[in-house]
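Archive entry. Fields below.
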Amino acid sequence: MEITAPPSIKPSTKSMKFIVSSSVLLKHLQMIHGVVMPNNPLPALDNFLFEIENGQLTASASDLETTISTRLPVESKQDITVCVNARILMDTLKTFPEFPLTFNIDEKKNTCEISSEYGKYRINATAAEEYPRIPEADGVSSVQIPSSVMLHAIDKTLFATGNDEMRPVMSGVFCQLTKKDLTFVATDAHRLVRYKRTDAGSAKEISFIVPKKPLTLLKNVLPDDDSAVKIDYNDSNAFFSFDNISLICRLIDGKYPNYEQVIPTDNPNMLTVDRGAFLSSVKRISIFANKTTYQVRLKITGNELIVSAEDPDFSNEANERLSCQYKGEDMEIAFNARLLSEMLDNIETDQVELHMSAPNRAGLILPPKSEADKSEDVLMLVMPVMMHG
Amino acid sequence: MDMDCFFISVSRLLNSKLVGKPVIVGGGERGVVAACSYETRKFGVHSAMPMKQALRLCPDAIVIRGDYDEYSKRSDEVAQIIHEAVPLYERSSIDEFYIDLSGMEKFFGCYKYATELREKIIHETGLPISLGMSANKTVSKVATDEAKPNNQMKIDFGEEKNFLAPLSVRKIPMIGEKTYQLLRSMGIEWVKTLQEMPVELMENVLGENGIIIWRKANGIDNSPVEPYREQKSISTEETFDRDTIDVAMLKNILIAMTEKLCFRIRSEHKLTSCITVKIRYSNFDTHTMQCRIPYTSHDHVLIGHVKELFEKLYNRRLLIRLVGVKFSHLVGGLQQIDLFDDREEIINLYQAMDRMRRVYGAHAVERAVAGNYSLRSFNPFSGIANEQNQIRPKDESANEYLLLLSPPSTVKKEIAEIKKEFHEKYQHHSAAQSVPHITLAHLWLNADGEENLIRSIEEVNRHQAPIKLSLKNFGCFGTHTIYVDIMHNSILTRLVKSLKEKLQLHRSQSFFSFKPHITIARGLTEEKFKSAITDFQKREYSASFIACGMTLLKRSSPQDNYLTIKEFEWTEVSEAVNGWQ
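PREDICTED_STRUCTURE:
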């Protein structure tokens, strides 16, 4: 893309400027850009907030609930704060190869002029005062956990969160830290995931519910290594900081349902089956199920598992047989195939265990003890659909 | 293709006495005409006309309650014949079919093929059907109407406009009473005028529909023949005998309706995600309100929403004439159990209740508030009282009365034999227990109502001569009862009807049988029923006897046995005995 700058733009004497590498800036902005929503109630939120202090640029994006900032070094002689339209900046940066960019900010004209090797681009720059204030960490407690632990905990639970506006607590992940362990729980009332780690914890027992969006952002930026993530929190907000990034989010207020109570402990029927084979079978069979309810039936007799589905509206039906190991009475149980396959997708072991008791009670999906990571305890629960009579 | 006054034709097939007589199918006093025979049309009766008006126009008409089950069965038969014969057909209503014969002319000659198909239907089902053939659906429909009764017509390609031109605009589908009045006020009476009008004018007058009507008038209709579609909603509504403002009662009726619909969608393995509540005020203003919810078939969830909608909807201090509930956006599926809301007891409760309902009928268990207002003790179409209504002592102090015809001992013995055999073969204990009888009425009355009851029965039976009844083969109600069928006897029906009118009991207190039968076994599970019915459908049985009177029995609690309290004899000697069919 070649753009020639209009000749009328002349550097102003009052201008402030900073220089930054295009690709470095893009890399950092990509980490925070996810917060910016397409339709903002507040126009200022369409912008990135740039704050430069002692040659450090802090770029922030916010949707009022969640604010994420990243720090990077730039060349600058002054301290600057300015707001720049996020979409235009991102779209432009994506087209550039690696080269230095000069940002010239004219406070009088409220403009920001970017100069590249190709030419000049001027965009509207809003005064930083209009940008909503980012909450400060005050009255907080603090805890540190390894980044990889956090990453896996989010990864394993996030998919199971709900969307029901009537049950806001379920739209987030419940995080609980005790002296011995760390537990993340997510549920949408039809399935539940409990992810426990014994290799992390906190001196003080804490728990809070983090909304889905900041966790999605964290999942994309957390490094999969042993570096520490510092979590500060108070009653209303949580602050996550690591590397150059800090994320502040409002917590979901409310009481998380008593999940331990609904996890059945007495499950005499235990099925062990090859995870990959089971998963692809469920996915394939669900093609023949009703397109809204995706219900599939599991029939277990002896050492045979029959997965079947039908959609009488279109006369579709299918069934498959899988060999399995089974302890317990023969039974028939029906599930939503999407819930089932999402769970199977999120388990890494080769085999998978399905613990059940009755056709209208929860089924537990667990990685076999022999294969599982010792410090990790994953429990997935899926509610069946009601079979008649 | 369109069946000629389908309901009437089916009724005539079942009862040849109705042939050649003016017949109206429809509901009670406040109902409307569902169908009427050609004989009544001469008097100006037409369908959807209020019953009262119809009877004023044609007082001699025989009014019958429709038997919807029978109608759909017959309609299915016709559909089956069509299905076997043609590549693509649309069942646009119970008695109308559109058939797409594109591509068939090469091999068969469409008109010849359609004619043969029509003859086949008439031959195999005995129902008159008319046929109209043309290039599109609108013209075919009009042609079929023109061809009626029991005839056929073919409109050649290119002739559509000429065919429609001399007809009244009323003949065009979509033009109802209102539109017709409007067009007449504009001076349009014949389709020809409509054809010559500029389409823009029609659009100005009637909006979008104007264009469609104009296109139809010109014989242009590109809508495809669409195969029969799956039912997407289920609803029920109730018009009250007397308009009401009793909100508590209205709510309870809505609960009863919701419960009923819930059971039905669960039985059909469906879930709903859209509820509509409808009320009609006494001035005929009709209001509806709907809401979307996550897919469910649970009573308690749906009842909550229905009540909420009703509260929002009912905001005028006006008497209410009708309330209704509809579930739409149905999808096939089973209820997803909720981890936190659905305690195990609730799931087990629903499953247990549904099992009971399947065995003992839809009303076997219901919410206490709903039980006070049993909806439609009669299937509005079949006139067959649902068996389940019998298990319903409303008032603790009420006595239970049973009015029946007792067959002579020879017949009794034969049927008792069958019942015993049934018990042995299918292990259905109750089959062998009861004595064979023909129930005419089942009533719940306080002791002080007894005198009136006996007097009414006496009055009805006065001057009644013995009736000859014929038993023939076996039949079934739903999937729970198997019985010996009794050939329709109009005298008996009339007796029950006049008794019903005389007693004027609320339907929660009474059940009158318009389908006399001798029960072999009831309360069957679906499995038992299935294995038994295959045997009994093949099995033949016939007997006839002369019934000489009714017997009234009474018991004061369901645990007691019935005791005979009075016999009513038919002593008159007249043509009655010869008068049976």
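CURATOR_NOTE: The first strand of chain B starts at residue 2 and ends at 3.
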